[in-house]
Write a structure and sequence with these properties.
- By secondary structure, this protein is α+β, with helices and mostly antiparallel strands.
- Helix 2 (26-34) packs antiparallel against helix 9.
- The protein contains 11 helices and 7 strands.
- The chain is globular, with a radius of gyration of 19 Å.
- The protein folds into 2 domains: 4-195, no CATH class; 219-277.
- A 7-stranded antiparallel β-sheet has the order 6-5-4-1-3-2-7, sandwiched between helices.
């Protein structure tokens, strides 16, 4: 059995925490976030950005690490929406981000707890390109985060990343500080105007609300009822991608990746069903 000393040591270790930044207004993010089947707080994060503050049960109550959960969640949100999703996460040993956008491969970067870079420099350039950041000023600031700096720990690196994102319109509500535990982040989020995202148990209503938002976006022509030539191929691609993602998530018991696979499968099946019920002339 663990000794009292080991219990104290574990309690002294920084608790994991995470934030999900979505480049969309809260009213567009809320229906998509319901599909994750997790309780979260949703608030505006400046300009066209919103922030989701998860309770953290998958990594607090299970054995799955926070970075794996957040990568799955970001992927699930991004494949079903026309806007990118940036997952920021940290634990006692590391901190990092994952950027997911559509069907493209997520891009990620990691720092060790003492701030030592542990990612590929090219990831920062891809990150900047996908968010449309300034190719000179912002990329130079991001490159500095990949260089050794004995005075900067992982939390300082995250603050540096957010400083770059402020030039893209991100403004986190006061009190949402990288490095804080999920509990403290939730307490801070409750002090601001927010929406509590809860799973209602209704897949059909949740998907209908999300698809209404997507239909009015630049992805509208790809939806099955648009009658476009790419809509059927999109539905097939979602099913083809959803099957292995769900299987992988089940094998790893990863709540995040199971959610990503479920979103892909459900949207693909919905699209194919609509195409069969409403054949094109």
């Amino acid at each position: 059995m663990p000794t009292e000393e080991s219990r104290v040591a574990r309690q002294a270790r920084p608790a994991p925490g995470a934030l999900l930044l979505c480049r969309a207004q809260p009213e567009s993010v809320a229906p998509a976030a319901q599909l994750l089947r997790e309780h979260m707080l949703l608030a505006s994060a400046g300009g066209d950005w919103s922030v989701l503050v998860p309770e953290g049960r998958p990594w607090l109550e299970g054995a799955e690490p926070v970075d794996r959960v957040l990568t799955g969640w970001a992927t699930a949100l991004a494949v079903g929406a026309p806007w990118p999703v940036l997952a920021l996460w940290w634990d006692a040993d590391r901190a990092g981000y994952t950027l997911a956008s559509g069907f493209r491969r997520p891009v990620a970067y990691v720092w060790l707890a003492n701030g030592t870079p542990a990612g590929e420099n090219e990831a920062m350039h891809t990150f900047a390109g996908r968010l449309g950041l300034d190719p000179v000023l912002d990329v130079q600031s991001l490159d500095e985060l990949t260089e050794p700096d004995p005075a900067a720990d992982a939390r300082a690196r995250m603050r540096g990343l957010l400083a770059v994102l402020t030039r893209a319109g991100v403004a986190l509500p006061a009190g949402l500080a990288p490095g804080d535990s999920a509990d403290r982040l939730h307490e801070a989020a409750r002090d601001h105007p927010h929406v509590r995202v809860e799973w209602s148990g209704g897949w059909r209503n949740a998907f209908r609300a999300e698809l209404d938002a997507v239909e009015s976006s630049r992805l509208g022509p790809l939806l099955p009822w648009a009658g476009g030539p790419q809509s059927h191929r999109l539905a097939l691609a979602q099913v083809a991608a959803g099957l292995p993602v769900t299987a992988w998530g089940l094998r790893r018991r990863s709540a995040g990746w199971i959610a990503a696979g479920a979103v892909l499968l459900a949207q693909g099946v919905l699209g194919l069903a609509y195409a069969l019920a409403h054949p094109r002339d």
